[in-house]
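name: query_chain
kind: protein
chains: 1
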Amino acid sequence: MLVTKVGLFHPICKFITISPLFLSTGLSHICREKLQHAMIQRIQSVYLILVALCGLGLYFFPVVSLVPETASADPSVYHFNALQVDRISNGASELLVRPWPILVLNALLVSGSVFIILQYRNRKQQIRFTHVLFLAVLVELVLILFDAESLKSTSGMGHMLSFNVWSALPLLMLVFTRLALAAIKRDEALVRSADRLR
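structure:
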């Protein structure tokens, strides 16, 4: 809905904003506010979409791995993501367990990010939900670290935690959620400022 409206009225508003015919009218001021509002809405939507994409990535890429610490240790390698824990031994992959708390929480985070985008008409509600989203991402990060340590203790001696580029996904979710929250607050401050001017 918002994208459609912006797509239709953005060129018209831009013309009114820069046209000398409308500079002295209130219409130019209103269109300038609409353009600023649409721009910020797009920014926070992009951040929330990135949160959702990072959450989806947690299902497909190993966030943490357990690798043999020495050559004499068990050669099995363990890969941990939000969907499952796999053990790879002699080229064969075996599903060990599904981390259900993380699996369910991550699904809620992904769907919650999309839900917050759809609440663009109610910025105060967006702010509240984004605060909850940020806390939920923190909880997920703690659960991932806790489960990784638990896996290390149950896999036996001779294994160490190994992090890779995908290990940054939960941290990126935190960063993008914080950026989205800041963008929504700027949007709300802009609207309040415009209301005071009226």
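note: The domain at 2-197 is CATH 1.20.140.150 (Butyryl-CoA Dehydrogenase, subunit A; domain 3).
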